[in-house]
């Protein structure tokens, strides 16, 4: 049910609409993280503080390499989440930024990224090392980079290394893999965590203390900027899909979790309508149960398939104004 009519003559003669020929996208596939090639790199340890969790705005960028250090606070466009303030101590009233109640200078994002770029230009083939950066720091930084494309910051470094994956490999069986816990366990030190500069300093210190084990393994935990841009593209598409499915959630046709599952498979409400137009209940069933990596694209559960089919059928019965 994914393909509509595709032969041009039939379309021309019968006068089918564009929807008749539109192809429903195939299942969204997990992206493959590919390691950077073997060559001589410079390790730059970095960290971000943000307005919250998820796709948040940056409030601080910091980085270190050996004794070279960089730190800058950034004016966020979004308000800072109360939970984030409890962790970082950063607040912003729209004109002044405070760190633990003391005012600090802050700058527009474009200026902050350009200064970061100048810092990175000091080094040959820099890789940005950060803890849990595949899921967080790399995504936040690349999203910020997309908002100032003329800067071309992605040309100033080779990629990222996620030290969370790295340290799970070389120091297995730890109770916690938070950076703070690892510094305490391995270095027997405590520090002011959740300040980007201090986090960067101690990440460098932590990795350097394990140097003999790091060298053979770190490249396997690297990935390039284009991988992150693709991740962001999928996140954006999934969010747009999810927004379109909210009427089904509000109508108690499906749960929010099921809506996310549908959205993450690459489907929006429009695609469900196309499938129903072409095959009714069976169209939805075939679409949801289509195999993807050995599993149903969405679900095989007849109750959910029937519920969605009934919703789409009812949608078609609503008279146009």
Descriptors:
alpha/beta; Nucleotidyltransferase, domain 5; 2 domains; 3-stranded antiparallel beta sheet; 12 strands
In short:
The protein has 321 residues and is of the alpha/beta class. The protein has helices spanning 8-14, 18-21, 82-88, 109-120, 137-147, 163-170, 179-187, 196-209, 211-214, 225-244, 246-250, 256-264, 269-289, 302-317; strands at residues 42-50, 58-65, 68-74, 90-92, 97-99, 102-104, 106-107, 126-130, 159-162, 222-223, 291-292, 295-296.
Show the helix and strand layout.
Elements: H1 8-14, H2 18-21, E1 42-50, E2 58-65, E3 68-74, H3 82-88, E4 90-92, E5 97-99, E6 102-104, E7 106-107, H4 109-120, E8 126-130, H5 137-147, E9 159-162, H6 163-170, H7 179-187, H8 196-209, H9 211-214, E10 222-223, H10 225-244, H11 246-250, H12 256-264, H13 269-289, E11 291-292, E12 295-296, H14 302-317
Parallel strand pairs: 1-8, 3-7, 8-9
Antiparallel strand pairs: 1-2, 2-3, 4-5, 5-6, 9-10, 11-12
Helix pairs in contact: 5-10, 7-8, 10-12, 13-14
Describe this structure in words.
With 321 residues, the protein is α/β, with parallel strands linked by helices. It has two domains: 8-29 and 251-317, no CATH class; 42-223, 2-Layer Sandwich (Nucleotidyltransferase, domain 5). The protein is 46% helix and 16% strand. It is built from 14 helices and twelve strands. The chain has helices at residues 8-14, 18-21, 82-88, 109-120, 137-147, 163-170, 179-187, 196-209, 211-214, 225-244, 246-250, 256-264, 269-289, 302-317, and strands spanning 42-50, 58-65, 68-74, 90-92, 97-99, 102-104, 106-107, 126-130, 159-162, 222-223, 291-292, 295-296. The strands form three sheets. Strands 7-3-2-1-8-9-10 form a seven-stranded mixed beta sheet, with helices on both faces. A hairpin with a 4-residue loop joins strand 4 (90-92) and strand 5. Helix 5 packs across helix 10 (225-244), helix 10 (225-244) packs across helix 12 (256-264) and helix 13 packs antiparallel against helix 14 (302-317). Keywords: Exonuclease, Hydrolase, Nuclease. One of its GO terms (molecular function) is 3'-5' exonuclease activity.
């Amino acid at each position: 049910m994914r393909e509509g009519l595709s032969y041009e003559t039939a379309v021309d003669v019968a006068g089918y609409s564009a929807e008749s020929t539109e192809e429903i996208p195939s299942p969204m596939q997990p992206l493959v993280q590919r390691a950077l090639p073997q060559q001589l790199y410079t390790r730059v340890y970095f960290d971000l503080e943000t307005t919250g969790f998820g796709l948040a705005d940056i409030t601080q960028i910091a980085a270190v390499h050996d004794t070279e250090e960089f730190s800058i606070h950034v004016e966020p466009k979004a308000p800072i989440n109360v939970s984030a303030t409890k962790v970082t101590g950063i607040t912003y009233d729209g004109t002044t930024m405070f760190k633990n109640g003391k005012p600090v200078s802050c700058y527009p994002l474009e200026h902050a990224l350009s200064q970061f770029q100048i810092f990175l230009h000091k080094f040959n083939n820099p890789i940005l090392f950060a803890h849990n950066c595949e899921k967080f720091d790399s995504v936040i930084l690349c999203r910020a980079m997309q908002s100032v494309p003329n800067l071309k910051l992605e040309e100033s470094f080779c990629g990222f290394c996620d030290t969370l994956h790295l340290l799970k490999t070389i120091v297995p069986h730890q109770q916690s893999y938070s950076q703070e816990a690892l510094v305490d366990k391995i270095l027997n030190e405590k520090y002011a965590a959740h300040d980007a500069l201090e986090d960067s300093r101690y990440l460098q210190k932590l990795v350097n203390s394990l140097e003999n084990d790091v060298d053979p393994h770190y490249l396997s935990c690297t990935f390039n900027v284009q991988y992150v841009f693709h991740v962001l593209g999928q996140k954006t598409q999934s969010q747009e899909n999810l927004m379109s499915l909210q009427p089904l959630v509000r109508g108690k046709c499906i749960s929010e979790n099921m809506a996310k599952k549908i959205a993450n498979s690459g489907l929006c409400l429009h695609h469900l309508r196309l499938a129903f137009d072409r095959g009714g209940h069976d169209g939805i069933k075939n679409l949801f149960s289509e195999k993807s990596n050995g599993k149903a694209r969405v679900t095989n559960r007849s109750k959910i398939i029937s519920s969605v089919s009934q919703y789409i059928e009812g949608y078609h019965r609503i008279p146009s104004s």
